[in-house]
Amino acid sequence: MARRSxxxxxxxxxxxxxKGWPYVLxxxxxxxxxxxxxxxxxxxxxxxxxxxxxxxxxxxxxxxxSGRGRRSSRAWENWVTREDIDSLQEWENIFGPExxxxxxxAYWLQGPPQRAPFEDVHFFRKRHYAFRAIGLRDYxxxxxxxxxxxxxxxxxxxxxxxxxxxxxxxx
Length: 171
Prior knowledge:
By secondary structure, the protein is an alpha+beta fold. It has helices at residues 7-19, 82-95, 136-142, 157-163; strands at residues 23-25, 32-34, 37-39, 44-46, 53-63, 80-81, 99-109, 122-124, 127-135, 144-147, 152-154.
């Protein structure tokens, strides 16, 4: 597995392997240039039996422990940069209709998995992870500015929790 230093991406790659889903790891160190425009790379190309194939950008976030009735404003954190959205859209245009851009939020669970709202939890390097995916079009339609200074966007947590789903539903 490549990129072992980014544990969220390494956990996601381990998850893909465990599920037996074919994929290609994209080397982010080499930015693609098309028509003199630099495009931020996505992380994985995941092949589907039924199409479309997925252009996946993985975003790592911590998911707080909800034990003892605790509720955290950091649950379902789902921010991305404007560059992430714009680049994924460009990749989707370049690859064509047989490919779909998807943002996968890799949540590192901060408490026991049974207290988290996920059915599918992956154990990797002594940590528990859950992965929620959302299509770029659905995500982009609901985002709002989070930080103008940092050019970040996010969906309201409640909307994201309803719309994001297991990656298997895309495959």
